[in-house]
Amino acid sequence: MKTLIGLEIHVELSTKTKMFCSCKNEFGKPANTNVCEICLGHPGTLPKINKRAVEYAVKAGLALSTSINKKSRMDRKKYFYSDLVKGFQISQDEIPLCRDGYIEIGPYGNKKKIRIQRIHIEEDTGKSLHTEEGETLMDYNRSGVPLIEIVTYPDISSKEEAREFLTILKQTLKYIGVSDVKMEEGSLRCDVNINLVDGDRKTGIAEIKNINSFKAVQKAIAFEEKRQKEFLEKGIVEVKQTRRWDDLLGETKLMRTKEEKDDYRYSYEGDLGELELSDEFIENIRKNLPELPGERLVRFIKDYGLSEYDADIISKDLNISRYFEETLDLTKDSKRTANWIISDVLRNLNENEMESDELKFTSKNLATLINYVKEDKVNTNTAKKLLKEFFLEDVDIEKVIKERGLIQIQDEDFLLKIVEEVLAENEQSIIDYKNGKDRALGFLVGMCMKKSKGKGNPVKFNEIILKKLEEA
């Protein structure tokens, strides 16, 4: 039995204005304040295409390895929803802007291609707001916002692959700066098409809508796989249908039987004419594409000697990858820098529920901690505590270290005196060590650190203790 999954991803483009008018493209403004006669569909108004939106769409297409159609056209997609004021949506049908791309998923050296069928441009719809009194209020601020719709082939086989595809897609779109891809604000929305095949038998395709997080995508796929498997085993054949994901119940719910393409009654959008792109326009966008996540991953492995695991984690996020390289410029130690970012910086971001662009602990501060530990000026535990303490602040960490007197004492006479005091006070630990209890050594080092108020060098304490125990 095989699961076939295709995704339809709607991405709002981060242009300053809407797709076909000059209204501002802003999130979170009071309802129905960013509207005009064009995006409200008043009779006699004419749309005018947003050149920057086309540029962003081409940029996304190139980043996702698609072919760009130099000639495409806009079409009217006619169906009734309350959030479509005109009664139709301006979209693209038979001649989309981009065709035949792909994203590679899976481990480095063993990638699987998930094919992208098409990327087309269109306008977003308004937003329905349902009150507790049973009323439906309409906010048309979102109506007319530029969208790209990315449609994959059914090459995805599991919920894990779906999440990885979406993660890489989100990273790529953010890298190239065409969208903020904030699912919580509706900038990235995903529909899942799924059915099961077992030899000659197969289930009807279900399109699942209203999925607002990658976690919910995985849950919806898992639920639908189980539901369709039961129908397949019972020999029940379902027609194509549209379902919605109910996050509270953790299940999909039937909305309607799936519309066929003819139900949309596509027709040519004569008010806009054909969209023609020059070779120069496309090539200029191609030349100015930034380094993409996959390319950066390979470079981090090749140039910095990072493991595939470390390079993958760091290169996924544009802000973190830049932070890594800024810190590395000051530490000249790629592996140690990667370890600190993965084990401490990312963990503290997660614990504080922060995004990488909210990071306040500067790369200079991180480099200071790494270099001080590397040079045995500050012990590792102290450095990690400092990072955690000042993670949410923009301070001079070197100044803090000096003001608190945290630089480790290297003077061997001072350290020897403390070791002699600790050994004299802990004769039983000496006996335990000589009887093969290695933990006694760690205890003695810990007591030395305590007596030195954390200022002693634990490595040197360890060396001096061992030398003394051998002499005893």
TrEMBL record:
Classification via Pfam families: GatB_N, GatB_Yqey
Catalytic activities: L-glutamyl-tRNA(Gln) + L-glutamine + ATP + H2O = L-glutaminyl-tRNA(Gln) + L-glutamate + ADP + phosphate + H(+); L-aspartyl-tRNA(Asn) + L-glutamine + ATP + H2O = L-asparaginyl-tRNA(Asn) + L-glutamate + ADP + phosphate + 2 H(+)
UniProt cross-references to InterPro entries, sorted A to Z: Asn/Gln-tRNA_amidoTrfase_suB/E (IPR017959), Asn/Gln-tRNA_Trfase_suB/E_cat (IPR006075), Asn/Gln_amidotransferase (IPR018027), Asn/Gln_tRNA_amidoTrase-B-like (IPR003789), GatB (IPR004413), GatB_C_1 (IPR042114), GatB_Yqey_C_2 (IPR023168), Gln-tRNA_amidoTrfase_suB_CS (IPR017958)
GO terms, molecular function: ATP binding; glutaminyl-tRNA synthase (glutamine-hydrolyzing) activity
SUPFAM superfamilies assigned to the protein according to its UniProt record, in alphabetical order: GatB/YqeY motif (SSF89095), Glutamine synthetase/guanido kinase (SSF55931)
Entry's EC annotation: 6.3.5.-
Record bears the keyword Ligase: yes
UniProt keyword Ligase present: yes
GO BP: any one term: glutaminyl-tRNAGln biosynthesis via transamidation
Keywords of the record: ATP-binding, Ligase, Nucleotide-binding, Protein biosynthesis
NCBIfam families per record: gatB, PRK05477.1-2, PRK05477.1-4
The family this protein is said to belong to: Belongs to the GatB/GatE family. GatB subfamily.
Protein task: Allows the formation of correctly charged Asn-tRNA(Asn) or Gln-tRNA(Gln) through the transamidation of misacylated Asp-tRNA(Asn) or Glu-tRNA(Gln) in organisms which lack either or both of asparaginyl-tRNA or glutaminyl-tRNA synthetases. The reaction takes place in the presence of glutamine and ATP through an activated phospho-Asp-tRNA(Asn) or phospho-Glu-tRNA(Gln).
Subunit comment: Heterotrimer of A, B and C subunits.
UniProt cross-references to PANTHER family, sorted A to Z: GLUTAMYL-TRNA GLN AMIDOTRANSFERASE SUBUNIT B MITOCHONDRIAL AND PROKARYOTIC PET112-RELATED, GLUTAMYL-TRNA(GLN) AMIDOTRANSFERASE SUBUNIT B, MITOCHONDRIAL
Protein name (record): Aspartyl/glutamyl-tRNA(Asn/Gln) amidotransferase subunit B
Organism: Citroniella saccharovorans
The encoding gene: gatB
